[in-house]
Structures are given as structure tokens and as C-alpha cells.
Amino acid sequence: MKKKLLSAILCAAMLASVLAGCGGNGGSGSSTGGDANAPAADEGEANAGDDASSPSDAGDDAEASSDGKESSGGDASYAILVKSAGNPYNKKMIEGFQEVMDAQGATCVVKEPEEASAEAQIKMINELVAQGISSIAIAGNDADALQPALEEAMNQGIKVCCMDSAVNADSRQLFVNQAGIEIIGETLMEAVYDITGGEGQWAILSATSQATNQNAWIDAMKQVMEDEKYAGLELVEVAYGDDEYQKSVDQTQALLTNYPDLKVICAPTTVGIMAAAKVLQDESSSVKLTGLGLPSEMADYIGADDTHSCPYMYLWNPIDIGRLTAYVSLALVDGSITGASGETFTAGDLGEYTISEAADGGTEVVLGPPFAFTPDNIEEWKNVY
Ligand code: RAM
After folding, report:
1. Which residues does the chain have with pLDDT short of 70?
2. pTM of the prediction?
3. Which domains does the chain have, with CATH numbers?
4. CB contact burial 324-359 (16+ within 10 A = b; e otherwise)
5. Atom of ligand 1 nearest to the CA of 88
6. What pLDDT is recorded for position 75?
7. Cα(123)–Cα(106) distance, rounded to whole angstroms?
8. Which atom of ligand 1 is nearest to the CA of 243?
9. Ligand 1: which of 270, 314, 371 to mutate, judged by most atoms within 8 Å of the beta carbon?
10. Whose CA is nearest to atom 4 of ligand 1?
11. Helix count (H) and strand count (E) of the chain?
12. pLDDT in tens, 204-251
């Protein structure tokens, strides 16, 4: 009897810790709600910076369903599988996804691989398939390598979408794209042009060499750079920090050593830009920085004077990507969308979305244009995300 009681208590404690795990960082994300996107949506332009340019533990997974709320999820369960654990950007996406699932009374499963590799994600996809999940939303660590695992999932009736970093068109039903690939490429290239003064050496500090999103943005930047306007700029290296802080620090230091005439580093990754910002600022380097960063992590480094390493940078609302991805997952599972171009759906407070053709031959929904964070607005945003 005593034994039974003890095991019941242990079970309850385990369940509580699992539920707490899924609740993740800060539960409902109250301060980051629909408002967070409002200024971005209002100002809307990639060069909101026109002025500026003139401008869980690794390997953890958890489950939860909210209590006492009307369930539209039924017995369905919805997974989100990010690139890697320990990246605050990924945590924000998870937060938005969970918030919507909780409000629906739906069960959500969070998967965070220890390292940003395709192998780690394939293992987790197979686990989700084996447990009979209803949908998988994935940020791909590789465009093609996940195809067999994701195709097997879809063959079994599991709905598959991707967000943030796309898997190829055959591996998904829909891509939740944070912003257009071309607009990000143009925006970042314009920032490099502006900060270098249109000539000199610059380098890119990226995430992993296989990251679909960074590679697409880098290709878009190279495309833009073919224009005569950028003839004075020399891209000396694309370095990879693998979305790991220390590796990104080491790569930044190597760039400084290897290219004494370097003028600008562009880091299209929130992990890379923060690591580079600290190195440059601590060393009082004359090299300047731009790219994609979380305002909460970059506030100390953004400034117009020489004591700051980053004059301005860009991003979108990662919590909203998580929210939009949750609405897409729910709609795929309840059959109100199939992921075909031209279909429309409502994503709660985020509004109406129309599915369109993506550049890779698949389909996508686009959250909105990138937003500029400048010395003028960083204080306002640093507590939002
Ligand atoms: C990092 C990740 C993520 C990317 C952002 C900008 O957090 O690589 O995939 O979208 O940077």
C-alpha cells in the first residue's frame, strides 16, 4: 500500500515537472503579445531603418495540455522541433507556439536537439512518428537530409510544416517564412553598403554551413552584390559559428586576425551577432557589425558612436513565428488548409494569411518584412523579445 502511494506521488511529481517543462520560459508570454508585432507591422518597411541607413535542456522534450479550456485540439498532439537547444531565439518561437496551443487546450510536444544537426533532428522525427503525433513543425538543420524521415511522417498521415529554416518542398506541406528571402538579402546588403561607405572588405559570420535559412539569405546577398553599385565591396570570407556562442566568438577573433583591413561583419544569426558584438566592443575594434539580432541581447551594443559595435540591425518577432506556426499546424490537422497556394486562414490576432508559392517550388506564408533596430528604438524593444 505504502509502495503504491509512493509511486503515485512520484508519478504526480514527474508529470508536474514535465508540464512545467513545456510551459517553458515565462508561460503565456504576456508582455510579448500581439502588441509586440504592432510597431513592426505599422512601420512595416524593411528600411524602417531608412533613417538608419541613411539607415529545456538539451535533448529534452515535454508535453502539456492546458486545463479547463475549451479544446479544439481533440486527441491531436502538435510538435515543434527547433534547430537546437539553448538558443534564446528558438525559445521565443517555442513560447509563441505553446501559447496558442495552450489557449486551444491542445497538447504540444517540444523537441530541442542538443546540437544543430540533421542527424539529431532525424532521430527526433522518428520518435514523434513512433508516438503517433498529429503534426510536426520543424526548423530544418538541412534542406534535403530530413526528406526520408519527413516523407515517412507524411505517409503516415502526420501533417508537416516548417518554420524559420525551410526543409525542401517535398519534405513539407507549408513553410512559415519569417520574411521574404530576397527582402532580407537586400536589407542586409544595403546595411553593409551603408556602414562600409560603399567600399572595402567585409565578412559574414553565419550559423551552420547547412542552415537553409542563412544559406538562402547569403545567396540573396551575393545576388544583390552583383550590381555595379557594390563593385567597391569585397566579401573576404563566410565564417561559421554553428549557432554556438564560443565558436562564434572564436570565428570573430579569427576574422579580425586574418583581415586587418576588415570594415564590417554581417552576422545573419542572433547567436553569431551577439558573440561578435561582444568581441568587437570589448576590443574597441574599429570593425562594425550588422545582421539579425534579438533586441534583448543586443541592446548594450547598438549605438551610433565609436563605443558601440553595432550601428543598427534587423529581425522580426520570433514569438509571432511560433504563433503563426501553431495556427498553421492546427489548420493542417483540422483540414481547413492543405498547404496549397491560394488557401487562406485566420491566425488569431495575427490576422488573415494567404498561402503563396515559395521560391523553392513549395508553398509558404510570410510573417512580414524585417524590422530595423536602431539607437532610437532599441530601448523600446529590448524588453519585448
Ligand atoms: C538564429 C538561428 C535562426 C535564425 C536567427 C536569425 O537564432 O539561426 O534560425 O532565424 O538566428
Report:
1. 1-74
2. 0.83
3. 2-46+180-315+373-381 (3.40.50.2300), 62-179+318-368 (3.40.50.2300)
4. bbbbbbbbbbeeebebeeebebebeebeebebeebe
5. 7
6. 84
7. 24
8. 8
9. 270
10. 269
11. 13, 16
12. 999 999 999 999 999 999 999 999 999 999 999 999 999 999 999 999
Reported as a single tens digit per residue, the pLDDT across 270-280 is 999 999 999 99
What is the per-residue pLDDT across 282-331, written as a single tens digit (0 to 9) for each? Answer: 999 999 999 999 999 999 999 999 999 999 999 999 999 999 999 999 99
**Nearest atom in ligand 1 to 292's CA:** 6
| Minimum CA distance residue for ligand 1 atom 2 | 269
Give the residue, out of 82, 83, 314, with the most ligand 1 atoms within 8 A of its beta carbon, to mutate for a pocket test: 83
Residues 6 or more apart whose Cβ sits within 8 Å of residue 322: 80, 92, 93, 94, 95, 96, 97, 98, 99, 100, 163
| Ligand 1: residue whose CA is nearest its atom 3 | 269
